[in-house]
Each structure stands twice: as C-alpha cells, then as structure tokens.
C-alpha cells in the first residue's frame, strides 16, 4: 500500500457512500483503520514527497527581519506577528528547504543567522505564556484544562472568534511553521488539544472529543436532554433552564447562536433534543475555518493529503517531537572535541544533566541549540551534539554555539560547581551573541519603520 497510496481517494469530502469496494479507504479517511497501518505506509510517501519538492542548492530561504528590542519608547510587535506578515507574502516553493526555511536578521542585536537564530526565534514564539498573551487579537489559541488526561496541564484550542483576515493569516502561518517542523525535523513546543490534531488530519470529531476539553458543557447538555428525569415538565421548563433560544457557549466562553438565526428560535421542552443535537454539532465544527487556514499553511510545505494516513498522535509527534529531553538520546548523537568520553569533565557533565529536571533539560536544549524539543525518532536528529573542552579560567561559565549544537565547557574544580554554573547559564543567558560582535551588521538602516515591527 505504501507504494500505491496515489490510487486512494483520501479526501474526506469525496466519500459520500461506502461499499465493499471502498470500505477500506473509507475506514482510513474516517480514522478507524489508521492505527493499523505499518509505519512505512504513512512515512515513506511523506518522505518521498518531501524529497521530490526540496529546494536544491540553497542553505536557507528568503531573509526576513525581526526587531525584538524596543526603541523610541514603542513596544515591538510579537515576533510571531512580525514574521507571519513577511512569510505569508513569500512564494511557498522558496520555503521548502531541509533546514532553514528563511534567514532571520535581528535588528539591533549581535547575531548572524547560521541556523541558531532561526531556531531560537521559532522557539521563542511558543514559549508559554507568550503564545497566550502576545498575539494581537482575541488570542488565536484558547487555553483549556483537559480532564481527565493530565490534571493541571494546559492544552490549547483554536479560538473560533479569531476569524478576521488578520487572524486567518496568522493561522495560516502557524500551519507553515508546522509544515516546516515536519520537513526540517525540528519539532515545535506546541501544546494543542487532541481534538485539534484530529481535525488537522481530517478525522471526524465525536462527542468524546468535546468531553475531553469541556466536560461541564457536555454534562449540561445531557441534563437538558434528560431533564424529565429530574421531574421537570413543559410547564416549569423555563423556570429551571436559563436559556430561551438556540444559543450556546462557544469554546471561548461566549454565548453564540448554534444555528443561523438561533437567537430568534425559542428553546422549549419539546424541541430540547434538537437543541442538544445542534449545540453538539456546532461545538464539533466551530473551529473549521481556523483548521482550514492552518492546513492551507501546511500545504505550502508538506503534502497535506498524506495527513489522512496519520493518526492524531502520529501527526503530533511529527510536529512536536517528544516532550521529554532524553539524556540517553543525546549520548547517542554526541561528538567530543578536545576531550574524550572518559574525561572527568565529560563524566561530570552527563551526571549533572541526568540530575536536571526535564524543565532544566529543556532550558539546556535551548541554550545549546535554540530548540526546546528533540524529534521522536533519534535518526531524525540531523546535527550531532558537540561537547568541546575550551581553554578558559577554572569554574567559568559555559558557552554555546546554537548554530552548531555545541556546548563549550571550561575546566571545573568539582561537579557541584559545574552544575551551579550550568544552571546559571541556562536560566540567565537566553540571548545569542550578547558580546555584540555582529552588531554593526545588524543595525537598522531605516529599512522599516516602527509600525513594521
């Protein structure tokens, strides 16, 4: 099947009827059969399509400009917005590169983008709560607690109220970022609810998906549907139900019509079943426009029809990699320079990293690579992690070169001091090239006004 997927109609819009001839394809489109597919069935077509559409002979795509330092008393726009407005104007074919889809010029900062700046700016876009508070809108992403998956763990839904052209453009850019993550195998730290991943790979949503993100709302609808069990009759229905028309709560908490003209359609005891059905149908499709915009952006970079071979979990792993930073994985891809594996400095380093919490290892990853996650497949790590011993004073702070995934360690008098210095570095040094040796090349030459940033 992995070599004949082109014969399958994977579009969810063209499967109006099923028969014994297309039942298998229908099972894939609807999602039931996708977990049964062998990995090569859904990976090889994607890998081959990406390879055939790869830009050849270039190390990076078009240059875009980012300003993170405020000047003239004006606060800069979020880098998500700055980059989005530039990238969506580019040609899609120019962004299909193996590593850097675009080159970043940081105005007024001391950095030259050899890969680290590109990685670092993308990582910065998804640092919570930046995603929640820095996007201009109502927020694109709406935070919701998921029960019963992980108590107190935040996941995000697309905001159904974000439907202006500016909002949809930003959703499209989010899709471009997802596509770039798949193509370059550099995952994003993006926490979306499972139902969003299902929609992105065109698996129809069911009531259980809504329960995961809004259990209280589903329970309320069930109470309305079976309200007679509580002794409520047609006579006292409106005394117990605070709704008087076909309106319901959206994912962003607003009360909205659940069908066209719902404000003028009265909710009664006799039509409560229809109300519940329409309310559920509305909630299962309220993010359709936003999902379509994200898929449009993804189609710039990767073959979107092939997403119909993936489960929601498989797509999430392609885009987001693994949330845990594994020390064992780093050991498999490490390369030593000016030092060997048996050196005490190296032994102290690995012991220190193993003692770190996952949150600290995430900070470490950003310190040495500009990224905060590793791919789910170790073979997809295209750049080897380098540990280099440098000739500097004892017990100095470590340094890194994010463009080369390289950690530079000076000599230390003990593991305790090494751990202390490393913790200080990863928590307090998140800017690239603060010595500003590249600053003269990155000055703002009046190429853009404050309104552009």
UniProtKB/TrEMBL annotation:
Record keywords: Cytoplasm, Ligase, Phosphoprotein, Repeat, Transferase, Ubl conjugation pathway
Superkingdom field: Eukaryota
Location, primary (coarse class): cytoplasm
Ranges of residues in domain HECT: 91-440
Molecular functions (GO terms): ligase activity; ubiquitin protein ligase activity
Keyword Repeat: yes
Protein name per Swiss-Prot or TrEMBL: HECT-type E3 ubiquitin transferase
Catalytic function, reaction form: S-ubiquitinyl-[E2 ubiquitin-conjugating enzyme]-L-cysteine + [acceptor protein]-L-lysine = [E2 ubiquitin-conjugating enzyme]-L-cysteine + N(6)-ubiquitinyl-[acceptor protein]-L-lysine
GO cellular component: a single term: cytoplasm
Classification via SMART domains: HECTc
Class of this enzyme: transferase
Pathway involvement of the protein, from the record: Protein modification; protein ubiquitination
Keyword Iron belongs to the record: no
Organismal lineage: Eukaryota, Metazoa, Chordata, Craniata, Vertebrata
Active site: 403 (glycyl thioester intermediate)
EC code(s) of this entry: 2.3.2.26
Location of the protein in the cell: Cytoplasm
């Amino acid at each position: 099947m992995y070599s004949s997927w082109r014969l399958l109609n994977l579009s969810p819009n063209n499967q109006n009827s099923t028969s014994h001839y297309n039942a298998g394809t229908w099972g894939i489109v609807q999602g039931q059969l996708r977990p049964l597919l062998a990995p090569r069935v859904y990976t090889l077509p994607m890998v081959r399509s990406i390879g055939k559409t790869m830009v050849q002979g270039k190390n990076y795509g078009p240059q875009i400009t980012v300003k993170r330092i405020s000047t003239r008393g004006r606060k800069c726009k979020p880098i998500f917005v700055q980059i989005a407005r530039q990238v969506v104007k580019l040609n899609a074919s120019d962004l299909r590169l193996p590593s850097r889809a675009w080159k970043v010029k940081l105005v007024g900062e001391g950095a030259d983008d050899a890969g680290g700046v590109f990685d670092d700016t993308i990582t910065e876009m998804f640092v919570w709560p930046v995603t929640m508070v820095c996007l201009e809108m109502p927020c694109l992403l709406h935070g919701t607690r998921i029960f019963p998956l992980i108590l107190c763990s935040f996941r995000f839904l697309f905001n159904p109220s974000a439907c202006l052209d500016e909002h949809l453009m930003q959703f499209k850019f989010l899709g471009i970022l997802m596509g770039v993550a798949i193509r370059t195998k550099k995952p994003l730290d993006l926490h979306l609810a499972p139902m969003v991943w299902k929609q992105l790979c065109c698996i129809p949503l069911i009531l259980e998906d809504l329960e995961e993100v809004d259990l209280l709302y589903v329970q309320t609808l069930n109470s309305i549907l079976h309200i007679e069990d509580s002794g409520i009759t047609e006579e006292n229905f409106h005394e117990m139900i605070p709704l008087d028309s076909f309106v319901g709560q959206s994912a962003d908490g607003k009360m909205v019509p659940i069908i066209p003209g719902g404000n003028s359609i009265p909710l009664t005891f006799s039509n409560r079943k229809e109300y519940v059905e329409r309310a559920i149908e509305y909630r299962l499709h309220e993010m359709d426009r936003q999902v379509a915009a994200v898929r449009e952006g993804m189609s710039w970079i990767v073959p979107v029809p092939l997403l119909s071979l993936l489960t929601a979990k498989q797509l999430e792993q392609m885009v987001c990699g693994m949330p845990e930073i594994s020390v064992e994985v780093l050991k498999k891809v490490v390369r030593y320079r000016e030092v060997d594996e048996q050196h005490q400095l190296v032994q102290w380093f690995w012991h220190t990293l193993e003692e770190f919490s996952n949150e600290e290892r995430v900070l470490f990853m950003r310190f040495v690579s500009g990224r905060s996650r590793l791919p789910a497949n170790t073979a997809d790590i295209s750049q080897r992690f380098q540990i280099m011993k440098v000739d500097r004073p004892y017990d100095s702070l470590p340094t890194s070169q994010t463009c080369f995934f390289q950690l530079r360690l000076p000599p230390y008098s003990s593991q305790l001091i090494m751990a202390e210095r490393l913790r200080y570095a990863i928590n307090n040094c998140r800017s690239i090239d603060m010595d500003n040796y590249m600053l003269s090349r990155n000055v703002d030459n009046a190429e853009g006004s404050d309104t552009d940033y």
